[in-house]
Amino acid sequence: MMVNAERVAQRIDLVGSSSGSIVSVATWCALHAHDFDTIMGCIGDKLKADSTADTTRASLLYVLHEVLLTCAARGVSQGAQRTILTAISRTLPNYVDSVLQKSQVEAHASFIAALGKVLVWWDSLNMFPRAWIHNLRKKQQQAEAQVQASSGVSLGSASMLASLQRVFHLMSRYEDAKQQWKMSRLVTKDTDEDGSRGVATTGGHARRALIALREAVGNYSVDGTALSQWCDQQWRELEGQDTGDAKAEDANSRVMKTEVKPESNLMHEEDVLGSFY
To answer: Which of 21, 89, 213, 254 is most buried as measured by Cβ atoms within 10 A of its Cβ?
Structure first.
């Protein structure tokens, strides 16, 4: 049964800054995924409205993120997922432009920060084309630089701050993944098959997150000697070469690899990064 736009708009109006309202509306949207074109239209109207608060615009991005996590967890059918991804990829860039083209871009700081945050996660979920993510990230970084420049930060410093914020988001993601890996190891000391599979899965997440972090340190021209050394130390720990127990080995074997071999028992659809909440 199709839902009308008025009902969708009423539901979208319930979005607030609390995690409960965001998750609740996202769940409703996922349940009505067959009407996601209508849902995105109402979200777009809300984003573009002058009366919408900056924090509400940010929350609407988090609603979309929660819906995408439901897709990644196979919480909707393949047909519904296709409808959701098509609707978001087709309309969101224009909605972002509408918000960023409003006067006083510094008044949209929460929305700009939220956009940067979700793009880091969406890139890792690998649901959208890289070019689509790159174009949105470029718009976000330009807007972020304007906000920082309006606060008296030079454009050069603003660019460096954007790079460091990207690294910060990736480091936070890695720490979350590493904690899941550690918990899996503690829970599965009796190495049964399911336990080993859980450790392999969480270990794969941690390795991919660490690789993304290491690449960002180089790609964003961050002076990352200390960060690179930290990444190498973390890699040794993930490989079971804790500094206290490490034996004398060839130095190259203790430096982080640039790619991870696919684990046979790690399914692609299990690579779900998790909710913000």
So the answer is: 213
Quote the tokens at residue 273. 């990064």
CB 272 within 8 A of CB 72: yes
Are residues 69 and 272 in contact, defined by beta-carbon separation less than 8 angstroms? yes
- pLDDT tens for 69-110 read 899 888 899 999 999 999 999 999 999 999 998 877 667 888
Q: How far is CA 135 from CA 10, 96, 150, 189, in A?
A: 31, 11, 23, 45
Q: How many residues does the chain have?
A: 277
Does residue 84 contact residue 68 with C-beta atoms inside 8 Å? yes
pLDDT for 83 equals 95
Query: For the segment 240-261, what is each residue's pLDDT rounded down to a tens digit?
Result: 876 544 444 444 445 555 454 4
Query: What dotted CATH number matches 5-153?
Result: 1.25.40.90
Return the amino acid letter for 219.
N
Separation CA 20–CA 59 (nearest Å):
11
Look at residue 265 in the predicted model and tell me its pLDDT.
Answer: 43
Percent of the chain at pLDDT above 70? 73
**Which parts of the chain have pLDDT scores under 50?**
221, 244-253, 258, 260-277
Longest dimension (CA), the chain: 68
Distance of alpha carbon 135 from alpha carbon 226, whole angstroms: 30
For residues 117 and 123, the answer to whether their CB atoms sit within 8 Å is no
Orientation angle between helical segments 155-187 and 130-150, nearest 10 degrees: 120
Q: How far apart are CA 118 and CA 116, in angstroms?
A: 6
At residue 101, the 3 state secondary structure works out as: coil
**CA contacts within 13 A on the Cβ side of 33:** 23
